[in-house]
Write a structure and sequence with these properties.
Structural class of chain B: mainly alpha
Number of helices of chain A: 7
Distance between the termini of chain B: 84 Å
Helix content of chain B: over 70%
Mean pLDDT of chain B: 63
Number of strands of chain A: 0
Shape of chain A: elongated
Low-confidence stretches of chain A: 11-22, 238-247
Largest interface: A-B, 77 and 55 residues
Helix content of chain A: over 70%
Oligomer: heterodimer
Structural class of chain A: mainly alpha
Number of strands of chain B: 0
Order of helices and strands of chain B: HHHHH
Mean pLDDT of chain A: 82
Largest sheet of chain A: none
Radius of gyration of chain A: 26 Å
Strand content of chain B: under 5%
């Protein structure tokens, strides 16, 4: 029975792999539609000059622009949903602050995309359209993308934590089963060795994620302080606020590297569980 | 061959140590019956000899049932658990990588490319998608090409 238990406990349930990780259909569709619209634009541009070519080309440019904006709205909305899936009850005060900051940032981005949409009129001259595209590109590179990357790191941390909790839970259950097998006098040296190895991997993953979490929170709090100082200075000097480029903190890469290393450790632990399953099976049959 | 001598030899036959441990383990792990069994002492007092036979028979039966059940479950698990573990390993990788892949890389790449196309006047004539589309058209829609192919084939024959 204990061996059956160990077989069952080696069948882990992944709480983290829930709704959040299903491919986002609206976003996927929006990306596909945008690619098709771009293909059409490329085709029109490639045609030889005709009386209607310029008109068609401009129409196609506007259509492409509209698809970009549609995609941006969907993307922002989905990132908001992901952030809101992190329930405040499970977060610390400073984490709630970071989450709220991200959400309010996304609201601003939504407003920005809205403004771009308003500027996009059919009567727009080609050069104006090009400038609008260039501005949007610069805004995405300097403002939108760095923030989005930070949001992904934030979500990545909690995903990893949930994963580690599941792995630890699995490890505890296997440990109980190992004790039962040991009591029965069946040989468990190999199983115990593998169990210890998996435990070290999970511990290592836990240390790495905690480190990444600590660094993320401290760098975000610094950012928030800096942002509030800048706001104060701007208020005092009565200078109109303009969107400023947020620089990704230097330790962002180390945060991501730690999280990826943690994932490798958890994967290794599960591979070991898999190996243990084979040994447990051979003990009975 | 002296059959009496041979039978005496057989008297000393003992199972392997691992078999004893495994059997003991399997029996101990069988869930207890919910039905209240008669008191052990009562049985011993009134049915001692019969009990001995029944008990031995019961142990053998339990052992057979337990072994069968375990084997059956294992056979089921051998497919189920292995597949599940593999599936979960895939989920594990996807679960972590997906946010950045789906939400960032794909859409970001598509938007950057689209903005570039809006901005620039002329196509790059080595544009991959344009070339791919052209290849398709050349193969499917241009009858001349198939004629040339046929002619070449004829020529080779």
């Amino acid at each position: 029975m204990a061996i059956i238990l160990i077989l069952v406990t080696l069948w882990p349930s992944f709480g983290f792999a829930g709704e959040d990780n299903k491919k986002s259909e609206p976003l996927k569709n929006a990306v596909e539609t945008l690619n098709e619209t771009v293909d059409k634009l490329i085709d029109i541009k490639d045609e030889s000059s005709t009386a209607t070519k310029a008109k068609l080309e401009k129409r196609s440019r506007i259509d492409t622009f509209r698809e970009i904006l549609k995609l941006s709205f969907i993307e922002i909305e989905e990132v908001k949903i992901r952030l809101n899936n992190l329930k405040n009850e499970t977060l610390k005060k400073e984490e709630i602050g970071i989450k709220e900051e991200f959400l309010s940032g996304l609201d601003k981005y939504e407003a920005h995309v809205n403004n771009v949409e308003k500027s996009l009129e059919d009567g727009l001259a080609l050069e104006e359209l090009k400038i609008l595209a260039k501005d949007l590109k610069n805004w995405r590179v300097n403002e939108y993308q760095p923030t989005l990357e930070r949001i992904f790191d934030f979500l990545f941390i909690f995903q990893s934590k949930s994963l580690i909790a599941t792995a630890k839970n699995r490890l505890d259950k296997i440990s109980e089963d190992l004790a039962k097998i040991k009591k029965s006098g069946l040989p468990i040296t190999k199983l115990q060795k593998l169990f210890n190895k998996a435990a070290i991997n999970i511990d290592e993953a836990s240390i790495l994620v905690n480190e990444a979490h600590k660094n993320f929170v401290s760098s975000s709090l610094k950012d928030l302080e800096m942002a509030s100082d800048t706001e104060q200075i701007l208020k005092e000097s009565e200078t109109p606020t303009t969107p400023t480029a947020k620089q990704a903190p230097a330790n962002v890469n180390s945060i991501r590297i730690n999280l990826q290393k943690a994932l490798i450790n958890i994967k290794t632990a599960y591979q070991t569980f898999f190996e243990m399953y084979s040994i447990a099976k051979s003990l009975i049959i | 061959m002296n059959p009496i001598k041979e039978l005496r030899k057989l008297k000393n036959i003992r199972p392997e140590e691992i078999f004893i441990k495994r059997s003991k383990f399997l029996i101990l792990q069988i869930e207890p019956q919910t039905k209240q069994a008669p008191s052990f002492h009562e049985l011993i007092e009134s049915w001692s000899s019969l009990f001995n036979i029944a008990f031995t028979f019961g142990v053998i039966m339990l052992l057979v049932i337990a072994t069968n059940n375990l084997n059956k479950k294992n056979i089921a698990f051998a497919g189920l658990v292995d597949t599940k573990l593999q599936e979960e390993m895939t989920h594990l990788t996807k679960g972590i990588e997906e946010p950045s892949l789906i939400y960032y890389t794909e859409s970001n790449r598509a938007v950057s490319k689209a903005l570039d196309e809006i901005e620039k006047d002329k196509n790059n004539h080595l544009n991959e998608r344009v070339l791919q589309n052209e290849i398709k058209e050349l193969k499917i829609e241009n009858p001349i090409n198939s004629k040339i192919d046929n002619l070449l084939e004829d020529f080779n024959e």
